[in-house]
Amino acid sequence: MRAALQKSRISPDRAFEVKFLKAPHFDPNWHFHSEYQLFIVLRGTGTRFIGDHVTPFTQGDMVFTGPNLPHLWQSGHEYFEGNKDVWTEGIVVYFHEDFLGHEFLQKKEAYQLRQLFGRSQQGVRFIGGTQEKAAKLMEELLQTKDFDGILALLRLLNFLAGSQEYKLLSSADYTNLLKASDTERMNKVHAYVMKNFREKITLDEVAEIANMTPSSFSRYFKTHANKTFSDFLSEIRIGHSCKLLLEKKMDIAEICYESGFQTLSNFNRQFKSVTAYSPLAYRKKYADAGYHP
Could you tell me which residue ranges the HTH araC/xylS-type domain spans (predicted)? Predict the structure, then answer.
């Protein structure tokens, strides 16, 4: 199991790293690291975890995360079934805050960049025209070398820093209290939930996976996830139902049970609590647009 903190994702002789990713699925481990990270999904769907924020993701999802903010793009079940016609693609950029020197961010000219880096502590999702143009800049960044790469990265960051087309993801009061051993334990819980959320999951089951008593696990999960396990499980199920509402021609009752809910009334109540829409209103608003809110 991957540990929480890794060796640097940036080569010692480079100021930043940009990589094109292509694999059957995205990295399935919930983790964090010391670098800033800008990531865009070029191909793939699933559930995204940023700090205490959980939501579905689709093609075009672009998120900027700050240092040590836990994150995970969990690909859907179909990406783990060995189907060669299903795979994921993305572009990721890593850099440290001081890649331009320790004093640069304190200068007047770097004010907007400081603001962007501050927002990244919660995770920032870019949307609309900003996402579309930034995606092109990230593709261009892949093709640049040496000092031209630094200039291309600065153009990209300057563009993002000046944009108002973004949404903050994790709660303002979220604090990462995880250690390496915690990350391994939480990964086991995440993996179990993602595999079994369509079925009934009890607190006793997940507590046993975490090697804890149910009461201890409840306190532990609330401390590290900033929400109860019940709320977390509900968000996973609602996220899956959002995907089904947009991707498949299933009626609401079918989606309810396919997503792990036992009654339609509870599904409707939980769905509106999480998304602020009824399932039918959600489908009507977003299905034609082809994206998640």
Answer: 187-285
